[in-house]
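Changelog-adjacent note: as of this version, every example in the card shows the full chain rather than a window. The one below runs 82 residues end to end.
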Amino acid sequence: MIAAVLLAPQMANACTACMGDPNSNVAKGANAAIFLMLGVLGGMFSLLVAFGICLYRRANAPVPPHAEISDGIDAQPEGSLG
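Full-length structure tokens:
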């Protein structure tokens, strides 16, 4: 395969989107697709970071008063049989 590429360099040219006219519609479409994919990836990574921050804040938040009361209600007194 490498020998074929080295012996016939005219067959190893890049596609027209890469090596063609940079002002053509194909090149503009390829650039737009690349920026769209970068935007989607940036959005997904920023949402992932925001979710991590939300989990961090929730883990470090003080326990709400109603949660402390419900913990005391569910606990059975010592010495009970039930």
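Structural remarks: The chain has a mean pLDDT of 78.
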